[in-house]
Amino acid sequence: MAELTAPREDAPVPKLSEREVVAYLKAHADFLSRHPDLLETIELRHKAGSAVSLIEKQVDMLRAKNQRLEDRMQRLVEAARDNERRTQSVQRLARTLIRAPSLAAVAAGLAKCLREDFGIEEVFVGVMAGQFKRHDIEGIHPLDPDGRLVRTFENFFRTRLIECGPLPEDRARLLFPKAASPVQSAAIVPLEKEKSLGMLALGSADPQRFQPRQGKLFLELTADLVAAAIRARL
Questions:
Q1: Cα distance between residue 4 and residue 10, in whole Å
Q2: Where are the coiled-coil regions (predicted)?
Q3: Of the residues 44, 119, 219, 227, which has the maximum number of CB atoms within 10 A of its CB?
């Protein structure tokens, strides 16, 4: 499109469509820089009826954009801090399980770390009875293939997929009979998925603590650590 020039007094004023004006301004981004007086004479109407100059509008837009960028940066910083804290907590959990002298210490250390570092109130560890038959270790339970618990969670043991979300009251009582507060949501994770060592269940009184579409990385990592600690002491 040709450069805009002032028409001769005797020449007809060309009529431009809005599309042509927009196209011209896009093609000549320095137009307003070469005509700074327009920045203060062009008015933009608000819905309320008040008017501001174009430069004031640009300043407002830049401020809003800057605020969005600051908010996004703040969210990224907070996420980084959360990830750092979570990494440190997972490392503490790993050290606790590795150093545990017995299965009882594994169960106690696991419950303590999850409660203090992750705010998870209830923990259930079940090991298939074919590999673990003891009933004297608090926190670790043998799972009878024909027992009520395995039959209740038949779909979980069949698919060996992580399940997260609200937990019905009957299932909550089955997994966490001694819970101080009713468990509203839980994450149920397989131990040694390919070998089916058992299950790890984490429960919370907060109905929003575990959600069906939440990330599974932390749960998988925790289950791997627990399975390795148990396997080494069977």
A1: 17
A2: 52-86
A3: 227
DSSP state of 138: T
DSSP state of 164: E
Alpha carbons 126 and 107: distance in angstroms, whole number: 11
84 with 148, same domain: the answer is no
158-198 tens-digit pLDDT: 999 999 999 999 999 999 999 989 999 999 999 998 888 99
Q: Is the pTM of this model over 0.90?
A: no
Collect all residues with Cβ–Cβ distance below 8 Å to 230 and sequence separation of at least 6: 103, 106, 125, 127, 132, 140, 191, 197, 198
Closest of 227, 197, 209, 113 to residue 164, by C-alpha = 209
Tens digits of residue pLDDT in 31-85: 777 777 776 666 666 555 555 566 676 777 788 888 888 888 888 888 788 878 8
Query: Could you tell me the CA-to-CA distances from 175 to 149, 171, 207 in Å, in that order?
Result: 8, 6, 16
**Quick check: 127 and 140 in contact, CB under 8 A?**
yes
CA distance 44 to 49: 10
- Domain with 89, as residue range(s), is 16-99
Whether residues 111 and 20 share a domain: the answer is no
